[in-house]
Write a structure and sequence with these properties.
Elements lengths: L4 H4 L6 E2 L6 E2 L3 E3 L5 E3 L17 H9 L3 H9 L6 H19 L1 H5 L5 H36 L7 H13 L7 H6 L5 H24 L4 H23 L5
Antiparallel strand pairs: 1-2, 3-4
Helix pairs in contact: 2-3, 3-9, 4-6, 4-7, 6-10, 7-9, 9-10
Protein name: Protein ARV
Subcellular location: Endoplasmic reticulum membrane
Membrane topology: Multi-pass membrane protein
Length: 242
Amino acid sequence: GLGVLPRAMAALGAYRCIECNGEATELYRDYQRGVLRISICKFCQKSVDKYIEYDPVIILINAVLCKAQAYRHILFNTKINIHGKLCIFCLLCEAYLRWLQLQDSSQNTDPDDLIRYAKEWDFYRMFGIASLEQTSFFIGIFITLWWMTPEMLKRKSDFILLLKALLLSTYGKLLLIPAVIWEHDYTPLCLAFIKVFVLISNSQAIRVTLNLNRILPWFAIFFGLILENGVVCLFQKMGWHV
């Protein structure tokens, strides 16, 4: 099937067809004077990457809709290197939300410096807990995928690409901030929808990166959630509010 072609033809080039995931040597050919011709995939006979003509807003909308073609365009055919910064910012958003949910952060208005520093350390603690939970979630995913499909993660570059895809697919956590700012009676429901959206994005990122079916990524996410919840239970037994 087409799923085997990218690895068998890895020497052809660094780009991927967004339709079949086949390797390509170029996305387009420049005939100068503003004349460009999009390359045709040798495997599926479709345009290698139609998104190179699209406005970034359209690409973002397609990514929000979790279209595999948009994910392949972003992961394989662009040079986006913001996954680390995006991860930190998402963790800060999650830590801020947890920090707001601490009872003493809203009830105690004492201006004493000791109280203020305690609140500040609470935020750092929430950031650390959120980081550990996300790390355990990713570790659960990697262990499951390595156990079930070891041939997919043979090289270090495979791990790095999958990690980059997972980090980029957590962009949905940015919605935590407007959910808190526009607080209303349905905020818990909004947070639940954001969590589900992030998990769907993670599943699509795994599927696109490793060229898998729809079921295996969800297995990996399920075991990742088990490990993440195990870390949460550990913190709760230690008496930490998470």
